[in-house]
């Protein structure tokens, strides 16, 4: 158990809908990361937050957004969903914003039908 | 830009065989290198890491040495077990923000 908690574990939704994935980082970790794992794209970095502020952005679509709240939990919002958004979305956390080991949650499986 | 290249799988071995999974990288500066493992139906777990040239990371019988001259970080284990069956990802982070760049992953299947 990494200490990173993600909900929901599985989600099935229709095209065009919007979903929110939630992540609680390990106790004491200030940095949160979101990754997408799909069959065709592999593991891709989406976005990083540190202590509530966006720190780095990767291949995140404009239809996706994220935030980190004062209690350090994070949410990834996916809107206008398409079939190609079906993937495993990982949240990860680390103690600070650089130079640390990153610990991953078990992921949220999103299926868009 | 930074990138990681892993040998394609699947790799199929018999129990107690020697394992090597090749990983090479391209990066500016001095990246940190990692191996993560994903067991069936589970998330990513850090297996080992190395933060500077010639460092050797090790864990659970797995080892990898950071070779700057060959830009490689090959994963090895002397005697694999069925329980090692998983997907293994090589990754690097460079710069100040911990952003991990992953290889495509190598699936390992170990048979009794």
Give the radius of gyration of chain A: 13 Å
Helix-strand sequence of chain B:
EEEEEEEEEEEE
Low-confidence stretches of chain A: none
By DSSP, the count of extended strands of chain B is 12
* Uncertain regions spanning at least 5 consecutive residues of chain B: none
The protein's oligomeric status is heterodimer
- Helical coverage of chain A, percent range: under 10%
Task: Name the helix and strand elements of chain A from N-terminus to C-terminus, one letter apiece.
Answer: EEEEEEEEEEE
Using the alpha-carbon principal axes, give the shape of chain A.
Answer: globular
Count the beta strands of chain A: 11
Count of separate DSSP helical elements of chain A: 0
Please report the distance between the alpha carbons of the first and last residues of chain B.
41 Å
Radius of gyration of chain B from the CA trace?
13 Å
Give the biggest beta sheet of chain A.
7 strands, mixed
What is the mean pLDDT of chain B? 93
Structure notes:
The complex is a heterodimer of chains A (113) and B (112). Chain A has 113 residues and is an all-beta fold. Chain A has no helices and 11 strands. In chain A, strands 2, 4, 5, 6, 9, 10 and 11 form a 7-stranded mixed beta sheet that branches. In chain A, strand 5 and strand 6 form a beta hairpin. Chain A is globular and about 35 Å long. The termini of chain A are far apart. By secondary structure, chain B is mostly beta strands. Chain B is built from no helices and 12 strands. In chain B, strand 10 (86-93) and strand 11 form a beta hairpin. The A-B interface holds A 2, 31, 33, 35, 42-43, 45, 48, 55-56, 58, 90, 92, 94, 97-107 and B 32, 36, 42-46, 49, 89, 93, 95-105.
